[in-house]
Amino acid sequence: MNDMPKWKHEDIEVRLKAVDELDDEDILADIARNDCSDWVRRCAVFKITDDSILADIAENDSCYEVRKLAVDMIGEESVLIDLAYRSSKLAARMRAIARIRDESVLLDIARNDSDREARRVAVRKITDQSALVDFAYNDRDRYVCADAVSNITNQDVLEDLALNNIVYNVREAAVERILDDSVLAEVAINDSIEAVAWNAVIQIRDESILMDVARRTSDIIVRMRAVKRIRDESYLAEIVQTGFDTYNRRIAIKRIADEEVLVDVALNDSSSLVRRIAVGKISDEDVLAEVALSDSSLRVSMRAVRRIRDEDVLLDIYGKDSRCKVRRQAIKKINDKSVLADIARNDCCEDVRILAVRKIRNQDVLECIAFSDSNEMVRLAAVGRIHDDGVLLKFVENGSGNIQRKAIEMIGDEKLLDDIICNHPNGEMRTGAMIRLKWLKKHKGRQTKDEEGPAD
Question: How confident is the model at residue 5 (pLDDT cuts 50, 70, 90)?
Fold first, then answer.
């Protein structure tokens, strides 16, 4: 047992270390051919310099990674050529072909090999332009044709292939190497295969040509890809103002800063989505007010109102618009107390009145609304804003249901709560007062009322 060499040890770590220390090519070859571990065999292959041994391993090893490494370690091109022609393992042959530099061998394999993938690897290594053109036009396999195109440099040939070849793979490969934007535009507009047209348009750099494609193409995706690459505002304005489809108008309007164009779109575009984007970029509050009052889309109107800061403009919108949500949006920025009090008392929409109530501090106004409003939710909102415990007690004594409960929740005087607990005829109110009193005692010393300041 002690005489057993370490490279035969049962522990893989010991064998790996032993291989790392070996220089004997015969032993390394034995390990590379026979060790049960792929890792040990790879380690041995890495140290072998005999190309014939490496070729044998590349052909016969059971592990793809070992075979691949063996091919990569071969130094003599003649061995690689022999492997490329004779190996029964396609992966080994392709790996060998990829390392061959002899153009005549590559041409022979590209023309005559029985396997498509081997031929494709060979073609991608060829630099002879006349041979590549011949492959591109005449090879029996469309993928080999396309691979040949990827190495062609002659622009006239590439343009002819892109515009006229019947094989779409070839046209697509040619498009990627064409430098003339006008040729790419013709492909983008006229090619019947979407992938070719789409690929052509993303290669175009000239914005005037991109705009021409956007005008002329009937393919919505080609148009979209062209529009997405345009930055010139004159072209973008044309897109949003001359009948392009909604999707592309939305793309264009997002890049426009010209207020005149934005105003025109906000007032006249047929799509509420496009109008809403335009409104979000307009700063003129008179225009925004016009949009808010005239637009048929609630979402467009509300976006316009959200961008207005002038209270007089907002009051005008509030007074003229019949839609509750628009009026509610308008009063979010109104702070005139008398106006808010009037809205809270008189607006026909309870949601608007509730929002106005939440902005009011005047206790007399709140008390009046809490007693008189026809909608319980409005009255509850008002009670929730009252600070005077004496007023709140009135609601406990004379209100009903939710109003009484809300009033008890707002009382901060512990003696008053004790009195309710002892004397109120309604058991639910007594229980509510007990819960409120317990809460106050637990949080004693903390301010439990609104901190918005004194009443007006």
Answer: confident
- Cα–Cα dist 451/386, whole Å: 12
pLDDT digits (tens, 9 = 90+) for 143-177: 999 999 999 999 999 999 999 999 999 999 999 99
304: Cβ contacts below 8 Å, ≥ 6 apart: 266, 279, 282, 288, 289, 291, 292, 295
Question: For residue 19, how many other CB atoms are within 10 A of its CB?
Answer: 24
The domain segmentation of the chain, as residue ranges, is 1-100, 369-456
Separation of alpha carbons 246 and 274, rounded Å: 7
Contact 172, 195 (CB under 8 A): yes
Supply the pLDDT for residue 453. 42
**Whose structure tokens read 């062609």?**
152
For residue 133 the two structure tokens come to 């053109």
In one-letter notation, the amino acid at residue 397 is: E
Q: How much is the pLDDT for 448?
A: 42
Specify whether the CB–CB gap between 172 and 159 falls below 8 A. no
Q: How far apart are CA 235 and CA 112, in angstroms?
A: 53
Query: Cα–Cα–Cα angle for 261, 267, 270, nearest 5°?
Result: 100
Which residues contact residue 453 at a Cβ distance below 8 angstroms, ignoring those fewer than 6 apart? 361
- pLDDT for position 277: 97
Residue whose pair of structure tokens reads 């809270």 in the numeric block: 344
Q: Residue 249's CB: how many other CB atoms inside 10 A?
A: 26
Environment class of residue 95 by beta-carbon count within 10 Å: exposed (0-12), middle (13-18) or buried (19+)?
A: buried
- Do the Cβ atoms of 230 and 214 come closer than 8 Å? yes
CA 337 – CA 455 distance, rounded (Å): 11
Q: What are phi and psi for residue 131, nearest 5 degrees?
A: -65, -40
pLDDT value, residue 446: 55
Interior angle at CA 156, CA 107 and CA 145, nearest 5: 35
Question: What's this model's pTM, rounded to 2 decimal places?
Answer: 0.72
Output b/e per residue, 359-397; b: 16+ Cβ within 10 A.
bbbbbebbbebbbebeeeebbbbbbbbbbebebbbebbe
The stretch 364-373 carries a mean pLDDT of: 94
> 241: buried, middle or exposed (CB in 10 Å: 19+, 13-18, 0-12)?
middle
DSSP classification of residue 7 = G
How many C-beta atoms surround the C-beta of residue 34 within 10 A?
A: 11
